[in-house]
Write a structure and sequence with these properties.
Radius of gyration: 50 Å
Number of helices: 4
Strand content: 35-45%
Number of strands: 20
Oligomer: single chain
Order of helices and strands: HHEEEEEHHEEEEEEEEEEEEEEE
Structural class: alpha+beta
Helix content: 25-40%
Largest sheet: 6 strands, mixed
Distance between the termini: 73 Å
C-alpha cells in the first residue's frame, strides 16, 4: 500500500514538471506574437493648398423682359421659346396706323412752312425794292432842298422821309417773317424726326445675344408702351444671356482676405458629372451684417450652352497655398490644435510620440510646421489604440495614397 502511494505521488510530480516544461517552452513564441504590426508612411515634401467649398446656383449673366417703346398691335413675331438670337436680330414688328398719319402730317407741315418761307422771301425782295426807291427819292429831294433853300417845301421833304422810313420798316418786317418761317420749318422737322424715331420702335430687336426663355405675346396682341405703366404693360419676350453665367457665392468673413479678382476657380456640376473653369469677376467689397458673408461672383463661360441657369454647382476657392512643405496623411495626426501629435516609429522599432504644430491641410494631407518630425520619418496611420511611447512595433510601410 505504501509503495502504491509512493508511485502515485511520483506520477503526479512528473505530470506537474511536464506541464511546467511545456509552459516554459511556449513563452518565447507568445512574446513574439504580442509585438503588433502597424501601418506607417513616410513624411514627405509636398505642395499643399486649402480650399473653401461653396455651393451656388447658376444665373444668367443678364436677363430682361423685352418691352415695346410705343403702343401697337403685334403684326408679326419671329421667335419662340428656346430660340437663340443675336444682338440686333428682329424679334417682332408692331402695327401702328396712327403713327403713319403723324408722319404724313409732319411732312405736310414742313411743306407748308417751306412755301410760306418762299413767300416771305418774295415779300422781302419787294420791300427791299420799294425801300430803295423811297430812299432814293428822299435823298434827291433832301439834296435839292439843301442846294436851293425854299425851292422845295419842307412838308414834301418830310413826306419823302416818312415814305423812306415806312419802306425800311417793311424790309425789317419781311426779314422777321423769313426768320419765323425758318424756325417753323425747324420745329416741323424736329417733330417729323420724333415721329420717325418712334416709328422705328415698331421694330423690336434683341439688345444682346441670348436665348428666348419666355414668350408673352402672339400676333394680334395689343402691346402697351413700356414707359407708361409697368404694371399694365405686357412684355413681348424674355431674353436671357446664357453664353456667360454667374455664380453668386457667399464667402465667409474669415476667407474674405483671400479673394482676388481674376483668380481661376474650378466649378463642379454634379448633375453633369463635369467640371468647368471659372473666374472671380467681382465682389461687393462689403461684409453683410446679417450673414457675415461677402457676395462674390464667379463668371463661367458657357459658349455651347451646356450649363442651364438654375443648375447647382460646387466651387473650390483656394484660400491658402504653400509649396514644398513637410506633409503627412491626415490619418497620421491624432488630436488638433495644441494637442496634435504623431506616432513615429524609430529605426529600432520603438514608438516615439511627437507633439506637432499643424499648418494647412487638404482632403488627404496636412502640413507639419514644427515638432521634430523630419522628411523620411515613418509615422503610424490608422488605429493607434494601445500604443504608448517606447512600445516595440513591427512597421509595415504603405504608400501615402493607400
Amino acid at each position: 500500500m505504501t509503495r502504491l502511494i509512493l508511485v502515485t505521488a511520483i506520477l503526479v510530480l512528473l505530470a506537474i514538471l511536464s506541464s511546467c516544461a511545456r509552459g516554459g517552452g511556449a513563452e518565447t513564441p507568445r512574446n513574439e506574437e504580442e509585438i503588433p504590426t502597424v501601418a506607417v508612411v513616410k513624411a514627405t515634401r509636398a505642395d499643399l493648398s486649402s480650399a473653401l467649398v461653396l455651393t451656388a446656383e447658376f444665373e444668367p449673366f443678364q436677363e430682361i423682359d423685352v418691352m415695346a417703346k410705343v403702343s401697337g398691335y403685334i403684326k408679326q413675331i419671329k421667335v419662340d421659346i428656346g430660340d437663340r438670337v443675336h444682338e440686333g436680330q428682329l424679334l417682332a414688328t408692331l402695327e401702328i396706323p396712327e403713327m403713319q398719319d403723324d408722319l404724313t402730317r409732319a411732312a405736310a407741315a414742313i411743306d407748308e412752312a417751306t412755301a410760306e418761307l418762299a413767300t416771305a422771301r418774295d415779300e422781302l425782295q419787294r420791300a427791299q425794292s420799294a425801300h430803295d426807291m423811297a430812299h432814293l427819292s428822299y435823298s434827291r429831294i433832301l439834296d435839292v432842298s439843301k442846294r436851293e433853300p425854299g425851292l422845295v417845301p419842307q412838308q414834301e421833304v418830310d413826306e419823302a422821309h416818312s415814305r423812306d422810313l415806312v419802306a425800311e420798316a417793311q424790309v425789317s418786317s419781311a426779314k422777321s417773317r423769313i426768320t419765323a418761317e425758318e424756325q417753323r420749318i425747324r420745329v416741323s422737322q424736329a417733330e417729323q424726326g420724333r415721329f420717325k424715331t418712334l416709328f422705328q420702335y415698331a421694330v423690336i430687336t434683341a439688345p444682346f445675344n441670348g436665348v428666348v426663355t419666355k414668350r408673352y405675346a402672339n400676333s394680334g396682341s395689343l402691346i402697351q408702351a413700356g414707359t407708361t405703366s409697368q404694371s399694365q404693360a405686357m412684355p413681348v419676350v424674355r431674353l436671357s444671356e446664357n453664353g456667360l453665367l454667374r455664380l453668386a457665392l457667399p464667402v465667409p468673413e474669415s476667407a474674405v482676405s483671400s479673394i482676388h479678382l481674376g483668380e481661376s476657380v474650378e466649378v463642379s456640376v454634379s448633375t453633369l458629372h463635369r467640371s468647368f473653369s471659372g473666374r472671380v469677376a467681382r465682389f461687393s467689397d462689403k461684409v453683410d451684417q446679417s450673414t457675415r458673408t461677402m457676395k462674390t461672383e464667379v463668371d463661367v463661360p458657357n459658349p455651347a450652352l451646356i450649363l442651364i441657369p438654375g443648375m447647382y454647382a460646387k466651387v473650390d476657392l483656394v484660400t491658402e497655398q504653400r509649396k514644398n512643405v513637410l506633409a503627412v496623411p491626415v490619418e497620421a495626426v491624432e488630436g488638433s490644435g495644441n494637442t496634435a501629435r504623431v506616432f513615429m516609429v524609430q529605426t529600432s522599432g520603438a514608438i516615439q510620440i511627437i507633439p506637432v504644430v499643424l499648418g494647412i491641410e487638404n482632403a488627404r494631407q496636412i502640413e507639419i510646421r514644427s515638432g521634430g518630425l523630419k522628411e523620411g520619418d515613418r509615422v503610424v496611420v490608422g488605429s493607434r489604440a494601445g500604443l504608448k511611447d517606447g512600445n516595440k512595433v513591427q512597421a509595415k510601410v504603405i504608400s501615402s495614397g493607400g
